[in-house]
Design a protein that fits this description.
It contains seven helices and eight strands; from the N terminus they run βαβααβαβαββαβαβ. With 182 residues, the protein is of the alpha/beta class.
């Protein structure tokens, strides 16, 4: 008997009108669920897209209000930014922007949140890596319980929207279940 193969698709930095709705349509087409780590400022600007993520049964997480780097931001300002986002994003999940937290930030934030990192950063936003390499990168990283990060942003949109259908097809052919982080 084959064991289930789960994968956690995640999208950072949205919601973005030109991108997130297209991502949602693709996820729906492939019957895949994902976790969207949203920026508070984008949720504030596009609440209807944020609500659509929830209506379609996806999970959300706090990715701060304004995408501050924990390594170079004073703690008071960093915590205030995370708290400002928490008013808009009702979730116990938190992903630090850039994956960077100081030890004291980690200690304080983990009291209120499940901090979520990743196994594979797709680098869909990078001008230094082409679509074929990104697709190879995420396919190679697709193991049971892997956490894959894409970005539903304008900067990443061209590569993301070209890669995502083929990647979702790959996951389907490999019998992966796209599941929510809880």
């Amino acid at each position: 008997m084959n064991a289930e193969k789960n994968i956690y698709l995640t999208f950072d930095d949205g919601p973005t009108p030109e991108v997130t709705l297209r991502v949602l349509a693709l996820l729906k087409e492939y019957n895949a669920k994902a976790t969207f780590f949203c920026l508070g400022k984008n949720v504030e600007q596009f609440p209807e897209i944020y609500n659509e993520i929830l209506i379609q049964g996806h999970a959300v997480g706090n990715h701060s209000y304004s995408h501050l780097n924990g390594w170079i931001t004073n703690n008071k300002k960093y915590f205030a930014d995370v708290n400002k986002a928490s008013v808009l994003i009702k979730s116990r999940l938190f992903r630090p922007p850039y994956g960077k937290l100081l030890p004291i930030q980690w200690f304080i934030i983990k009291k209120s949140y499940k901090i979520v990192f990743w196994t594979c950063l797709s680098k869909d936003y990078s001008e230094k890596i082409n679509e074929e390499k990104i697709l190879y990168r995420v396919k190679k990283a697709s193991k049971n319980n892997a956490v894959i990060v894409f970005h539903d942003t304008i900067k990443a949109s061209k590569k993301l929207l070209n890669i995502l259908p083929e990647y979702l097809e790959f996951l389907k052919s490999e019998n992966f279940n796209c599941v929510l982080i809880k």
